[in-house]
Design goal:
Layout: H1 7-26, H2 33-40, H3 44-50, H4 54-68, H5 82-97, H6 100-112, H7 117-126, H8 128-144, H9 153-173, H10 182-199, H11 203-207
Helix pairs in contact: 1-2, 1-4, 2-3, 4-7, 5-9, 5-10, 6-7, 7-8, 8-9, 9-10
């Protein structure tokens, strides 16, 4: 049985949907709470009753977008096949990095970081830091289950994230016309995941 949303939850989602679209299209500075209320078809008072200020709403928008992309929607119980788990994760991360939404937020943070330094901090806390923390948990599980030997899960998470970005991220960041092909990306991810697993191979298992 599908659980129905309460009117309160539906209103909150309306506001979030409108806010996400406006932040992506117009940036942080040009998006007012009045405009969000208008596009969400609710009163300004309703917006403030759900989100105390624009910073809170921006943070919630980033979190909502991360959740909707299901980056870490992976089973944490059976991790006996790290190749499949990590390759799936790598592919999702690349999909997020290359998405229009991620590119738009990156431009917002870069363009408005001087006038609104809190924007970059909010994005970092709600997006990259959250993803890093969740991948760290995955690395801890891989170590606990003796699938891989990872003494410092956070370092491993950061290594994995930065390795996966590869050449594609540099091209996106500088908005180059030339882009690596989907086939090249797939081959790079396969090689990177294999390289990562070799580097953190379980020492006990590998010595047997």
């Amino acid at each position: 049985m599908v659980k129905k949303r309460s009117k309160n939850e539906a209103k909150r989602q309306q506001i979030l949907d409108a806010a996400i679209n406006l932040f992506m299209e117009q940036g942080y500075a040009a998006t007012s709470m009045d405009l969000i209320a208008k596009n969400a078809d609710v009163s300004k008072q309703t917006v403030y009753s759900h989100f105390g200020n624009k910073d809170d709403l921006f943070s919630a928008s980033i979190e909502q977008k991360c959740e909707s992309l299901h980056i870490l929607d992976l089973s944490m119980h059976d991790l006996s096949d790290p190749q499949t788990i990590l390759l799936q994760l790598a592919q999702r991360l690349i999909d997020v990095i290359a998405s229009k939404q991620a590119c738009a937020v990156h431009k917002i943070c870069a363009f408005e970081s001087n006038a609104y330094p809190q924007v970059s901090d909010i994005f970092y806390q709600a997006g990259p830091l959250r993803v890093t923390n969740e991948i760290t948990q995955l690395m801890e599980k891989l170590h606990q289950q003796k699938v891989l030997y990872i003494e410092n899960p956070r370092h491993a998470a950061l290594q994995f994230l930065n390795m996966i970005k590869g050449e594609l991220w540099v091209q996106i960041e500088f908005n180059t016309k030339e882009r690596v092909s989907p086939t090249e990306v797939d081959e790079y991810l396969l090689d990177s995941v294999a390289f990562f697993i070799r580097g953190y191979a379980n020492k006990v298992a590998s010595s047997e």
